[in-house]
Specification:
This protein has about 100 residues and is mainly alpha-helical. The chain has 2 helices and no strands. The longest helix is centred in the N-terminal third of the chain and has 22 residues. The protein starts with a helix and ends in a 36-residue tail after the last helix. The model has no long low-confidence stretch (mean pLDDT about 75).
């Protein structure tokens, strides 16, 4: 009885995998195109991409780096004090000394 049950389960699993492999073929052959020729005009992706283009990406670039320049001074010591917004981390990413 165990062997019959195992054989039936094996046949079912094999049938499912063979059915899945034949149903996943695309209706048309897939061909490569340059990304500049890809356009989304549907009601789902197009609005998301537009929000990324107009809001998310400019905001990321605006906040990417803040650069400060100081008038050159000669000193033997230096203290940096930064006032940050609440719950915002910050720090000196790069410091150049000439």
């Amino acid at each position: 009885m165990k062997h019959k049950l195992s054989a039936i389960i094996l046949l079912m699993v094999t049938g499912i995998f063979s059915l899945a492999s034949t149903t996943n073929k695309p209706a048309q052959p897939i061909k490569q195109v340059p990304f500049t020729q890809v356009h989304f005009t549907d009601n789902f992706w197009a609005p998301h991409i537009e929000i990324n283009r107009t809001v998310s990406i400019p905001s990321a670039f605006k906040d990417c780096y803040n650069t400060l320049y100081f008038t050159p001074v000669k000193t033997t010591g230096l203290k940096i004090v930064a006032k940050l917004q609440k719950n915002v981390s910050g720090g000196v990413l790069e410091w150049k000394v000439n």
